[in-house]
Design goal:
- By secondary structure, the chain is α/β, with parallel strands linked by helices.
- It is built from 13 helices and ten strands.
- The protein has helices spanning 2-5, 7-12, 16-68, 74-85, 88-116, 175-183, 205-209, 226-231, 239-248, 252-256, 275-289, 305-318, 353-356, and strands at 135-143, 152-160, 164-168, 190-195, 198-199, 212-215, 293-297, 323-328, 339-344, 347-351.
- Helix 9 packs across helix 11 (275-289).
- The protein is elongated.
- It starts with a helix and ends with a helix.
């Protein structure tokens, strides 16, 4: 469920391998626990019944000697014989237990083999690694989800390395589609998305993802610790790097004031912390990733104005040598950007924001 919910972060942060291993470990643990549980539940009943059978047998043995000596009546012996007939059911259950285990075991082996299998990957000999040294371009890009209504139509956009670009537009104007095209999650119906002049279709997806730090409007967190959720930006990061990214995201102070610190669990989708803290964690994750292109998709929408200004100032300072693409509704976010584009009716138009100010 978490993998489906957080697929955008998992794919764009190249965490597919990490989550496959996590999923595999969880399933192996589940299989082992279910096997133990089934085995124990199947054994407990028959063992109890067998113990009763042995006990009653011993009682019957001594009862016969008691009848012979006249200490016990025949009627009492018949009652014991009736009890003996009941031994059949436990014995049958024990026999069925063996059949159940033998039936379940091949299924367990098959599942174990599937979990340990290594899928054959598609050869990527024809793709090249993506690099970002000059520019990111949309060249006459058009896109439609149903081949009828055009979400984007003949979009041209050039973002040079180091530029700060803002894209504004109403809800449903196509901003999310534009982001998906930027990240290489979908392919344009017409035209090309180019990285340093090379179309995305000729570049490996993993290398494209490595060039982006994406911060979504809805904070995507996993049911684990704050540390884990930040470190997804860079799994090999040191404690110092993690703390530095948290400080830049105005998060370290909050973490220092809670009992378990960075080991605090955030809950399912982060429901154990506030919306603002969830957003700061995703920002810290992106800053830790330290990719050359940062995409902010309404990333400060859950924060107050003062915190938003502090984080924006830190991000602009951090991204002095990086390319920043801001998707926003809040006009306060536009201050300091180099270019502003507006999406309307599927078209992308550059606005002279400084003159409008």
């Amino acid at each position: 469920y978490e993998s489906l919910y957080g697929y955008l972060i998992i794919k764009t942060y190249n965490l597919i391998g990490h989550f496959k291993e996590k999923y595999k470990a969880s399933n192996e643990l589940l299989v082992n626990n279910l096997l133990r549980s089934t085995l124990i539940s199947k054994l407990v009943g028959p063992i109890n019944d067998l113990a009763s059978f042995v006990g009653l047998g011993l009682i019957l043995y001594f009862s016969i000697s008691q009848v012979q000596s006249g200490s016990l009546t025949v009627g009492s012996l018949v009652a014991f014989l009736v009890a003996l007939m009941k031994f059949y059911q436990p014995a049958k259950a024990l026999f069925n237990l063996h059949n159940s285990v033998q039936t379940a075991f091949p299924g367990y082996l098959r599942l174990k083999g599937m979990l340990e299998s290594h899928q054959e990957t598609i050869s990527k000999d024809e793709t090249q690694p993506a690099t970002f040294e000059k520019s990111l371009e949309f060249n006459h890009v058009a896109f439609s989800y149903d081949n009828q209504k055009m979400i984007l139509d003949d979009v041209n956009l050039t973002v040079k390395k180091g530029e700060k670009v803002a894209i504004i537009g109403r809800t449903g104007a196509g901003k999310s589609t534009l982001i998906s095209l930027l990240l290489g999650l979908i392919q344009p119906g017409k035209g090309d998305v180019l990285m340093d002049g090379k179309p995305y279709r000729d570049l490996s997806r993993e290398s494209i993802f490595n060039l982006f730090s994406y911060i979504s409007q809805e904070p995507i967190l996993f049911n684990d610790s704050i540390r884990y959720n930040i470190q997804l930006g860079k799994l090999s990061s040191s404690a110092e790097e993690l703390i530095e990214a948290s400080k830049k995201a105005q998060l370290h102070g909050f973490i220092s004031n809670i009992q378990e610190g960075y080991d605090t669990h955030v809950g399912d989708r982060g429901d154990m912390i506030s919306g603002g803290e969830r957003q700061r964690i995703t920002i810290a994750r992106a800053l830790l990733r330290n990719a050359p292109i940062i995409i902010f998709d309404e990333a400060t929408s859950s924060l107050d104005y003062e915190t938003e200004s502090d984080i924006k100032e830190a991000v602009f300072k951090l991204s002095a040598d990086k390319t920043l693409i801001i998707i926003t509704h809040r006009l306060t976010t536009l201050k300091g950007v180099d270019k502003v584009f507006t999406i309307k009716d599927g078209k992308l138009v550059e606005s002279n924001w400084e003159e409008r100010q």
